[in-house]
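Give me structure tokens for this 143-residue protein.
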Amino acid sequence: MSFLKPDLTLEKLNARIGENLPGYLGLTMIRFGENEMVSRMELKKIHFAPNTYLHAGSLVTLADTTAGFGTFAHLPEGSSGFTTIELKSNFFKTLREGSLICVATAQHLGRNTQVWDAEVFNEANNDRLCMFRCTQMILWPNK
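Here you go.
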């Protein structure tokens, strides 16, 4: 059984980013499929804390957005959207230049919740910088 929206394209996904926070930070979706969403973010000065290290919020935004787009791509028919109700992250390394890749995978695709894991990597050498897990609550229209 496929949960993936059949008419979804990378162009449609990236058009949703727009001028919101993910767009401002330069996130782009680069690949998706059944139970998976992959994104990329090229690092700029805005991604760093005053101490010149990568800001944890930049990593969390990348991971949460990628998992969120995965959720959007796998919403149950008839649902009206979703919202993040829990997230957790672990940080292992930092990066001062280059690009990040985030791979989010569905762990649970239910009618009322979805659980997604995401890992963030240094694009240049595939070092893992962060692990992330979130739970998404599926929203349904009021009847």
